[in-house]
Write a structure and sequence with these properties.
5-stranded antiparallel sheet; elongated; alpha+beta; 147 residues
């Protein structure tokens, strides 16, 4: 089990890799973000993107899944109070292979509840060409290790 105390400021962890398919892009977008450049290859080709691209929310969801598989599901996570900054830096396209990392920027025990603490982290994702596609600063809350 990973507790609050296990998040060391400055530590960087690779979260894993995910391959992006056109079918997945369209499926996600039809359900949650049905803009033409996410769901219609022809109209996407006529857009400023020159082809189909993933919704930024889909990119966030893929990185979230990598974070869950890499550490959150084995942690004493209490959820998150939110994201402070989210940047979609480059379009994610069919065939891209995304790799994500987490870097711990800050950790602090709760002032109101000694049984938990908060961790501030930078989550980043790059495509197969080492181009940054996502950058997110987010807080997570975790139980402290039982004494």
């Amino acid at each position: 089990m990973i507790y609050f105390e296990d998040f060391i400021v400055g530590a960087r962890m690779e979260l894993g890799t995910v391959e992006v398919s056109a079918d997945e892009i369209v499926e996600f977008a039809r359900r949650y973000d049905p803009q033409p450049f996410h769901i219609d290859p022809q109209r996407a080709g006529e857009s400023i993107y020159g082809g189909l691209i993933a919704s930024g929310w889909h990119t966030c969801a893929m990185v979230m899944r990598l974070a869950c598989d890499a550490y959150l599901l084995d942690s004493a996570s209490l959820g998150s109070p939110g994201v402070e900054k989210l940047e979609w830096l480059k379009p994610v396209r069919p065939g891209d292979r995304l790799t994500a990392w987490r870097r711990v920027l800050e950790s602090r025990p709760s002032r109101s509840d000694p049984r938990r603490g908060s961790v501030y982290a930078l989550l980043e994702a790059e495509n197969q060409n080492a181009e940054s596609v996502l950058r997110m600063h987010a807080w997570g809350m975790f139980r402290r290790r039982p004494s």
